[in-house]
Amino acid sequence: NRDATSTQRQINKYLDLKAYMRHMFTILHAGASDWGEGAVIMDLNEKPARWRWTHWDMDNAYRDPHGEMLLGLTNAEWTKRFLDHALVPPRKADLYPRAALFQTLLETDWFPMVFAKLSQDILNHEIPPQFLESIQDHYAQLGKLYGSSKGPTRLVRQRLEERPMIIRADLREKLGLGQPYDVSVTGLPDRYLRIDGYAYSSGYSGWHFPDWPVVVEVPARERAGFSHWIVNGQRREGVRLELHPDGATQVKAVFKQ
Q1: Which residue among 16, 122, 184, 231 is least crowded, i.e. fewest CB within 10 A of its CB?
Q2: CB within 8 Å of 24: residues ≥ 6 apart
Q3: pTM above 0.85, yes or no
Q4: How many Å apart are CA 202 and CA 187, to the nearest integer?
């Protein structure tokens, strides 16, 4: 019985909000056409006990649905959906609480930006293109090994490549976010850096909305020999940077040799 005036703390008291947002992101990213089912779980051993959902029918994803599941849309229109996959959910999904909850939460003054920031972090740091490419290559090799070149793998590869741009465009349009820019960070290959709390030792590149700072820092154990940063050709001091990119941004961590 929560409404648009509910706070983040109030919602989190009854359900694991972080897990719920990740659950919904997975569904919206995959475009699963029949995601309404799936168990809702409360672990009574947890204090406080809160609700969580499980995924369902995730195999029916990254491909075009058929018939009434398309909701009267063309295949091209279907592939451009992200937030609308919950706001105008597929057949049956609108009868399930998680869809109604998502619609209500988007009317609050805090959830849209929290969900958008999480979406940005997941796209940049948890399922970046190079990671998804490695997964697709793995399954392509399995297809060759077992003698099958058929199936949806080519379409899935195309959809996975398209999703980040589609998601960023949809978040911009519906939530009024600013233009995202590419931010790249380099350092020494044997030294870890942290970008938005995620550890990197081999460089980083991701797209960032200007609505949140990009936090780049040298962890405490890596600071021996650290000198300064070079940001778009300009020297910056300190072990921690908060960047507000207004264009493509290149960051280099400089260590004394």
Answers
A1: 184
A2: 86, 98, 102, 115
A3: yes
A4: 8
Distance of alpha carbon 211 from alpha carbon 225, whole angstroms: 33
Q: Which tokens go with 134?
A: 């490695």
Give the integer Cα–Cα distance in Å for 159 and 180: 21
Residue-level pLDDT at 91 = 62
Report long-range pairs for 135-140 (Cβ below 8 Å, ≥24 apart). Answer: 136/160
Structure token pair of residue 34: 């029949």
Please report the beta strands in the chain, taking only residues with DSSP state E, as ranges in sequence order: 40-42, 51-53, 181-186, 193-195, 198-200, 204-208, 214-217, 226-231, 234-236, 240-243, 249-255
pLDDT above 70 as % of the chain: 91
Other beta carbons within 10 angstroms of residue 86's beta carbon come to 23
Question: Quick check: bond before 48 cis, omega within 30?
Answer: yes
What integer pLDDT is reported at residue 222 of this predicted model? 96
Q: Is 15 helix (H, G, I), strand (E, B) or coil?
A: strand
Decide: 160 and 135 in contact? Cβ < 8 Å.
no
Angle in degrees, 0-180, between the axes of helices 17-30 and 153-175, rounded to the nearest 10: 120
Judge whether 106 and 87 are in contact, CB under 8 Å: yes
Q: How far apart are CA 161 and CA 42, in angstroms?
A: 35
* 181-186 and 249-255 strand pairing: parallel
Length of the chain measured in residues: 257
3-state secondary structure of 33: coil
